[in-house]
Amino acid sequence: MYQLLDGKQTSIAIKDQIANEVRQYTAKGMRPPHLAAILVGDDGASQTYVANKEKSSHEVGFTSSVYRYSSNTSEEELLRAIEFLNDDDEVDGFIVQLPLPKHINEQNVINAISPDKDVDGFTPINIGRMVLGEDAFLPATPMGVCSILEHYNIETEGKHCVVIGRSNIVGTPVANLLSRNKKGANCTVTLCHSRTRNLPEITRQADILVVAIGKQEFVTADMVKPGAVVIDVGIHRVPDETKKNGYHLAGDVKHSEVDSLCSWVTPVPGGVGPLTIVSLLQNTMKAYRKHMSLN
Ligand code: NAP
Predict the structure, then answer these.
(1) CATH 3.40.50.10860 residue ranges in the chain?
(2) Which of 82, 83, 187, 291 is the most exposed place for a label (fewest CB within 10 A)?
(3) Nearest atom of ligand 1 to the alpha carbon of 277
(4) Tens of each residue's pLDDT in the chain, 295 residues
(5) What contacts 93, CB < 8 A, 6 or more positions away?
(6) 195 alpha carbon to ligand 1 midpoint, in Å?
(7) Which residues line ligand 1 (CB under 6 A)?
(8) Maximum pairwise Cα distance, the chain
């Protein structure tokens, strides 16, 4: 019988720890941590993500602010907004919600964020520090994958971890983090992508299978070794007339046939998703401690 890696419960436990820490500082008269977000345009999913980040920030006692820009904002204007937040002493960390409108070069924007406030862990400096095993802001979703494994004491050392997907924001950093010489890592990692040959043959060797491919229910039972730990990062909105909001969520894994094979598996929703926001809060807490010289 498989067990669920419950991202919601894990996120509640971590948020409680953060809220306690914030209370300790504010009780001493210090200002709370401040997480800001820049939102460009009116993409529905991006608005939902930013609203969720705001809500979670308030839950743990952070100050939260959102800077909204229209979809025809120029790159120069956006770079000026970033400079403003880089220099604002009252802001500990901020994110620029992606994707940005096509006329804006995302990498230019990311490069402009101060590495000390880059709580999404997307700047080349933080990615470089992560790869070198130095202290860094880790990218939120990969950090969430590690957090959920750690929360449930899943043994990773010496395990064969297969990651499907090599994006800069999920697959590649997950592969890096799980292969590091650190507690909660030390896996032997295979990173698969769209040019991988004999994918099912490789995924069937996985003790831990992390799926970040962006294709609905792609991973089927024939791709999973019995007893494997399966982490499904995928999120898809599937039209569903029976739901009030008109859709339900599905992952990159076909849970109806895969779950019964697993020892542990993340559900969708309620798996990696909640941990992504929590990682952002943890990074903001870390930025605050550094900023306020608390460690
Ligand atoms: P992405 O940028 O589209 O990357 C997808 C990766 O999958 C690419 O590396 C691609 O290979 C690989 N791929 C595509 N088709 C494949 C195939 N047939 N066989 C093997 N590999 C294949 O996606 P992403 O941004 O990493 O996101 C992945 C999923 O996670 C999406 O469903 C996204 O919505 C979700 N997500 C969830 C969270 C969360 O908070 N839970 C956060 C971020 C993303 P190539 O490199 O060769 O093209």
Answers:
(1) 29-115
(2) 83
(3) 40
(4) 899 999 999 999 999 999 999 999 999 999 999 999 999 999 988 998 999 999 999 999 999 999 999 999 999 999 999 999 999 999 999 999 999 999 999 999 999 999 999 999 999 999 999 999 999 999 999 999 999 999 999 999 999 999 999 999 999 999 999 999 999 999 999 999 999 999 999 999 999 999 999 999 999 999 999 999 999 999 999 999 999 999 999 999 999 999 999 999 999 999 999 999 999 999 999 999 999 999 7
(5) 33, 34, 35, 36, 117, 118, 119, 137, 283, 284, 287, 288
(6) 13
(7) 141, 164-167, 169-171, 192-196, 199, 212-215, 233-235, 252, 272-273, 276
(8) 59
The pair of three-digit structure tokens given for residue 16, joined into one six-digit string:
């409680």
Which CATH class name applies to 140-272?
Answer: alpha beta
User: For ligand 1, what atom is nearest to the CA of residue 193?
Assistant: 21
Active site residue 53: yes
CATH, domain range 29-115: 3.40.50.10860
Classify each residue of 126-137 as buried b or exposed e, where b means 16 or more C-beta atoms within 10 Å of its C-beta: bbebbeeeeebb
Q: Which of 15, 53, 159, 286 is catalytic?
A: 53
Q: Of the listed 120, 207, 252, 259, which one is catalytic?
A: 120
